[in-house]
User: Fold Transcriptional repressor NrdR from uncultured Truepera sp.
Amino acid sequence: MNCPFCSSADTRVVNSRPSDEGSAIRRRRECSVCSRRFTTYERAQFEALMVVKRSGRREAFNPDKLLQKLRIACNKRPITEKQLREFAYTFEDAVQLPEVQAEEIGVQALKFLKSIDDVAYIRFLSVYRDFDSVDRFIEEIKQLGDAP
Ligand SMILES: [Zn+2]
Assistant:
């Protein structure tokens, strides 16, 4: 931790105590070069992908929930569990955003299924609860029909 005043890397902790009811550690540091004191807070950073529901409510992305929906759509289809897991468990990294609209997860899952199995794709459209627009549903099926 460099000194904010002189940028020296030579600082030491003079005092350390929990803060915010234990969710953070407050540290009082002193710079060995300029002797000024400063405070740092150490707290856990939650980097989980957040899903924004249509209601505006946010919840942490759960790959198992996505995987469950994919499994239902792919039941008895020539798609392996490994393919589904690969998609669900790399989704968070693939998105590279702090949050995503719930519908966008559905759209990405549909693209993924469309590339491997049409039946699973149509099934997913019908089971994906967050995908509530009938117009969008029809539009997707039309697009599928137009595909070469
Ligand atoms: Zn300093």
Summary: The mean pLDDT is 84. Helices lie at 63-74, 81-95, 102-114, 118-127, 134-146. The beta strands are 11-19, 24-31, 37-43, 50-52, 58-60, 99-101.
